[in-house]
Design goal:
Blueprint lengths: L3 E4 L3 E3 L4 E7 L8 E7 L6 E6 L6 E3 L7 E6 L4 E6 L8 E8 L5 E4 L3 E6 L1
Parallel strand pairs: 2-11
Antiparallel strand pairs: 1-3, 3-8, 4-5, 4-9, 5-6, 7-8, 9-10, 9-11
């Protein structure tokens, strides 16, 4: 497992932008598939985006496609989630995840709150 620490969540107005960051411990960061999930109040946790170890492949939930961009800097052990044109329905706790494949994330961060006001 790897230790993950997210940052960047805050209150923002609809239409605004935020960039979340997630820094991982360890020296094998590039081996991990990284991703972001989110959980809104009263709803199940849902997939947001993922990125391959090299950064060459990215995947997005339909609800964020075209608005969110996931990227990574392996030299800094950090993955980012750039969120543009935010909507109130994007309000949630956002979790950074890491795993050896796209189906089994065995490391989760503590979460960072994103609140989008209308």
């Amino acid at each position: 497992q790897v230790q993950l620490v997210e940052s960047g969540g805050r209150l923002v107005q609809a239409g605004g932008s935020l960039r979340l960051s997630c820094t991982a411990s360890g020296r094998t960061f590039s081996m991990y598939v990284m991703g972001w999930f989110r959980q809104a109040p009263g709803k199940e946790r849902e997939f947001v985006a993922s990125i391959s170890g090299s950064g060459g492949r990215t995947y997005y939930a339909d609800s964020v496609k075209g608005r969110f961009t996931i990227s990574r800097d392996n030299a800094k052990n950090t993955v980012y989630l750039q969120m543009n044109n935010l909507k109130p329905e994007d309000t949630a706790v956002y979790y950074c995840v890491a795993g050896y494949n796209y189906y089994d994330y065995n490391s989760w961060g503590q979460g960072t709150q994103v609140t989008v006001s209308s």
